[in-house]
Design brief:
Length: about 80
């Protein structure tokens, strides 16, 4: 395996771990920063979510997890 592929494999494995960790927990909210063309915000803003949104986000994470696992296997 080349060094580039090894780095990519490590990156994918890290992302897989993060996805699996997120799926073990409830997602209570989302953090974001405001995009301002003139003055980027360094402040994080939190939005609380309800149970339905929590499940939708987990579905997206599950999809991403499957993509990552496939990509990891292909390496």
């Amino acid at each position: 395996m080349t060094e580039e592929k090894l780095e990519r494999a490590n990156s994918i494995k890290s992302e897989i771990n993060e996805c699996e960790r997120a799926l073990r927990n409830d997602i209570k909210g989302v953090f974001y920063t405001e995009k301002d063309l003139y003055m980027p915000s360094r402040e994080y803003i939190n939005i609380s979510l309800d149970v339905e949104v929590n499940e939708k986000i987990k579905d997206i994470i599950r999809e991403r997890l499957e993509e990552l696992k496939k990509e990891f296997e292909e390496l």
